[in-house]
Every structure is written in C-alpha cells, then in structure tokens.
What does this fold into?
Amino acid sequence: MKAFGVLLRRELALAWGRGGGPLLALTFYACVVVLLPMASGRAPERLAAIAPGIAWLALALAALLSLERLFERDYEDGTLDLLALGPAPLEAVAVAKCLAQWLASGAPLALAAPVAALMLGAEPKVMPLLVLCALAGGLAFAFLGGLGAALALGSKRGGLLVAVIVLPLFAPPVIFGAGALDGYGAGLPWTGGLLLLLAYCVGAVALSPLAMAAACRNALD
Amino acid sequence: MLRAVLIQELAISRGERRLFSGLNLTLRAGEAAVLVGRNGAGKTSLLRAVAGLLRPAEGSIAFETAEGPIEADTARAEQLHMLGHQDGLKSSRTAWEELRFQTLWTGGTEESARAAAQRFDLPRLLDLEVRRLSAGQRRRLALARLAASPRSLWLLDEPMAPLDAAQREAFGAVMAEHLAAGGMILASVHDPLPIPARSVEIGQ
It folds into this structure.
C-alpha cells in the first residue's frame, strides 16, 4: 500500500508534466468547444440544445490527448522493467497510472465542462449532472484509454492506434452520458442513463487493469 | 534474503530461433556469475527470464531462502533487482526524484538512497534534471538504486560500459560489499568484472 502511494505520487507528477499536463488538455478542450459551433451554425437556440452534448463529446476527445504515452515512455526508457519488479503487481501499477491520469487531466476537464456548456448557452440547471457525468465518464475514459495505450505498446504510430482502439470503447459512456443529460434537460427520465454510465465506469475500472497488465507483460516478453 | 537461485535445463527461444538450451546454473549467496558469449547469444534474454519478464521455452528457474523454496513471483517482487541496457530514468525529472522513487519502490528508504548517492559520488548532481547528466553519470545514478535497496539478487546487463576507470573501481567495491553481505550477482559483461566471479558460457 505504501509502495502504491509512492507510485501514485510519481505518476501524478509525471502526468502533470506530460505534454503540458492539464493546461494543454484544457486548451484543446476549449478549442474543440469553440470549433464545433462554427461548424454546426451559431443560432443560439440550436446551440443551446446541443451544448451539453458538445461539452460531453469534447471531453472524450480531450481525454485521448495525453493517453498515448501513458505506458510508452516507461517502456522505452526501461522503467517498465523496474515497475514489473516492484512490490505491487502490474495490475496495481496500471491502476496507479490511470488514476493519476484522471486526477491530473480528467478531473480538471470535468470542472471545465460546465463552463464550456454555459458558454454555448446550455441551461444552468444541467450543470451539476454534467459535472457528475464528466467525473465518472472521465474515469472510464482514463482506464479505457490506458488499455488502448498498453495494447499499442511497442508499435509505431501508437497514437493513431490508441485512438482507433479506444474510440469504439468510448461510445457506450458517451451515449449513456448524453442520454442522461438530454433527458434531464428536457424533463424526461434520466436516471437510467446516469446509472448505466456509472456501471460502465465501474466495469472499466475493475476490468481494464487486468488487460493492461497482460498487455504490458506481453510487450516486455 | 535469498540463499540460492537454481536454473535447470533452461531453454530460451526468440520467435522461431532457439537461443540456447539445456542451461544449468546454480548461484548461491555470496557468489557472482558472469555470462559470456557472442552478441545475440541470449545473455540479456537469460537475465530477463530470471527476472520473470520473459517466458523461457523450457526448464525452470527456482528461488530458495534459508527457510526453503519460495514462490518465484514473491522472490521477484521482493528480492530481485535489475539493471538492463537502459537506465530507466525520466529525463524530465531530477536525479534525486528518480533515485528516491526507485529506492522506495524497491523497498529502500530515503536514508539508504542518500547513502548510495554518496557511494557513487552523486550528491552534487542530485538537483539536476536527468537530461543534463552524461551517460556515465546516468549509469551511476542507476547503479545507486541497486545499492540503495535491500534486494539480494542483482541482475546486471553490461553495467560498466559507460563508466570511467575510477568509477569502475568504486562499483567493484560496492559489488564486493554486496557479495560479502550474502548477496548474489548475475551479470552479462564483455569486460571482466573487478570482482572474483565464475564464468558461464552462453550459446555455442
């Protein structure tokens, strides 16, 4: 447990520094949120209708941004060997990495999501739900993204491969979250979508570390 | 504390190619063994197999403590330390951050990390980012993590290549101390180690 804390702190420091850390992810997020209305037309009533959805989808894209190098750098410089010989199993190492990724970039993005949605003219009453969805969804994105990053270990053009592996896995949480947000905004039943999102998040957190560890072992072999 | 490593009838393949087979090697507390062989003979693969990073095609690798045999996974998680081709250091972090993390991760303490830094003449460099260190300095930093942690089996892959003569001598003293305390060393080298060690031929 002590070793896990030591590792988590290191991963946080690395995630904070990796490619500009949360600042870069936030900037990317802001860019996507500004670009989408330019493409879809800027009539306020139309924007307001899709605002929570845009804020939510852009989150998934921003989450992808810094994931590519999650395992790759440790693999390239030999640190992954050392992590594999530590007191905690590789599954725990994967959890620490994804958790740090979420804390350093997913959580700041979740706090930025309501700002973006308000900017686009969404109704203020959906904000608490949007933050909740963004926090839970961000956790799922971090773990699924870590899975993609681990599977792409050692391949050239890993970044693109990560996106191709991960984006289909992002589809369910995006659908569930958008369903909950839409329903809530329109006064329709919305708890089902939220519960499905939370369930998906729990499943991703519980299962993907097993796959990440297996993928790392495979890459080291 | 490990008392012995027993390698029996080990065979390692990479892809379709058999690197070597029928390797037997027993390493006991206080002993060092040096793997010699041409490039590509499988020295690095053998070290990685002992570390559990690579699955051998045949044979077994077992670990024993004074109380008897122990699970290979436990031995690897608690008693085994490895220095591969790469130093395993992040260029954007300071030398102290890296040494401290690696020491704590493998069961050492901050005090042991500082003492090891002293042994390898590193204290002046600890505040620098790793990217500012020379190859020899980075290697010393990587070696310091071995000395800083309480693990008894060291797997070394060409540990001395970037070191100058004085540093090789200093590392020799650290290795001799490790052996005297009941440690074990399994190393792949081209130049002879500055300590008494058995030679093990790998490949034909």
Notes: Residues 106 and 160 of chain B are 22 Å apart (CA to CA). Helices of chain B lie at 43-50, 72-79, 95-105, 110-119, 135-148, 165-180.
